[in-house]
Fold this sequence. Notes:
alpha/beta, 5-stranded mixed beta sheet, binds S-adenosylmethionine
Amino acid sequence: xxxxxxxxxxxxxxxxxxxxxxxxxxxxxxxxxxxxxxxxxxxxxxxxxxxxxxxxxxxxxxxxxxxxxxxxxxxxxxxxxxxxxxxxxxxxxxxxxxxxxxxxxxxxxxxxxxxxxxxxxxxxxxxxxxxxxxxxxxxxxxxxxxxxxxxxxxxxxxxxxxxxxxxxxxxxxxxxxxxxxxxxxxxxxxxxxxxxxxxxxxxxxxxxxxxxxxxxxxxxxxxxxxxxxxxxxxxxxxxxxxxxxxxxxxx
Length: 251
Ligand SMILES: C[S@@+](CC[C@H](N)C(=O)[O-])C[C@H]1O[C@@H](n2cnc3c(N)ncnc32)[C@H](O)[C@@H]1O
């Protein structure tokens, strides 16, 4: 029997209208859909009625399906000739384990196609009107995780001196140490900062602050994960009247 294939699909930050046309086409072609926890279930409107949908991620203290099990399952399904859609939040290649999965599938001789999604680190700030780059304000943008697998911390001291906007994924649990590391690295206490939870979704909730006051502002607002933290001059461009369509769908 001929092998099927795996589509590694980025579903974007949440708003289902931010799916790409390619993602919609691949969802419609799939026999089996493996859904990660951060994916908006509204994407299921694009799958075939006879497709099998498997939830492979759980939040809120529940155990997620082990990564090795998901990879084995994808290989088994593809070897049976199925078309598999592995659907992840944001972009599969930005803190999405996409690189690991592509390598494993290729080693197993499975054909894999990556379909990019809009990463939360760009879309969530944009939903507040924050451009992560602005040529008058920053030399660029650094996407960085606030939570590492082995517990090691990114070099906040060096990042403070990078001259770039810092866009921090998975930073909420370590926000206090992140803020103090950046201050110790020389960032001004007055550096603008923003945190956006559930960006682009109807449950979007955000605050703007300064680096010095960020932790107390976030705590007072009761913000939690999943959230993007933006540190840098561009965060001051957050607008009460967001310029992206966010969850107000295009008419
Ligand atoms: C494992 S990473 C996945 C990132 C994803 N691959 C991407 O490109 O956006 C999960 C983190 O992404 C961020 N995130 C994902 N969706 C988000 C959203 N709608 N709003 C804010 N942050 C989000 C949060 O920092 C969350 O902890």
